[in-house]
Amino acid sequence: MAETLETPPGPGGSRLVEGLRTYRLIAGMWVRSSMTYRTSFAVTVLGNLLVTGLDFATILLMFSQVDTLGGWSLPEIAFLYGLSATAFGIADLVLGSMDVLGGRIRDGSFDTLLVRPAPVLAQVGADRFALRRLGRITQAAAVLGYALVAVDVDWSVAKVLLVPVMVVSGAAIFCALFVAGAAFQFVAQDAAEVQNAFTYGGTTLLQYPPTVFGKDLVRGVTFLLPLAFVNWVPASYVLGRPYPLELHRWTAFAPPLVAAGCCALAGLAWRAGLRSYRSTGS
Predict the structure, then answer these.
(1) H or E element, residue 173
(2) Of 14, 34, 101, 251, which one has the greatest count of Cβ atoms within 10 A?
(3) Torsion of CA 24, 35, 110, 1, to 10 degrees
(4) pTM score > 0.85 for this model?
(5) What domain of life does the native source organism fall in (predicted)?
């Protein structure tokens, strides 16, 4: 018998396990739906890859006119771009549909998620799961691969291990932003663009070196909204460059802690938003 959302978790199953199982079932349903027309799916993945590649094409056009940007070379900026875009691509694949929550609240369809015996966050996160977003990840990973080969770095064990840590931690930080943005929609109900300003806007910001931005902005994305720990701070250690705002050396290894803190705060915001929700009555 096929699994359904109504199937209760096994003995001793935790809330997290139940949520992951729910997410897997819903995401799998959307994947099977998208694979019904394989040619269309392949075209959309390719289109996604090409469209997202225009961001890096813009950087290449800049470097056709200059040798450095903010004192950073093309391979170094490609390194920033690859880290930020890959981390964001993973988060966008996993939770990129969270911005539909506002629409569900407005039309009353969110109420149907509340009556199902499954974690609401998992249902919202997996809703409209779009496997075509693999195109973004593929393009970003290709740029990151080029940067790792082209950049002039004296590689050590710590630096090599820090690269995957940056990608995973960065993805977790962006996931936390998606969840926090969705929680804000319980209040605003039409805040998808506000959420996108911090998610899509944040990854675009991080694709350029901190030296091209004012110090107030760098402080804001370091201490208030810690996007700098996605790539700016740890990448400065890998590349042997001065840290933004002259931070301590150990902060290069702080992304996992920052990601854990962001996820915890996003979880609290989500629970607070869910408790404050009042049905539309429709």
Answers:
(1) helix 157-188
(2) 101
(3) -50
(4) yes
(5) Bacteria
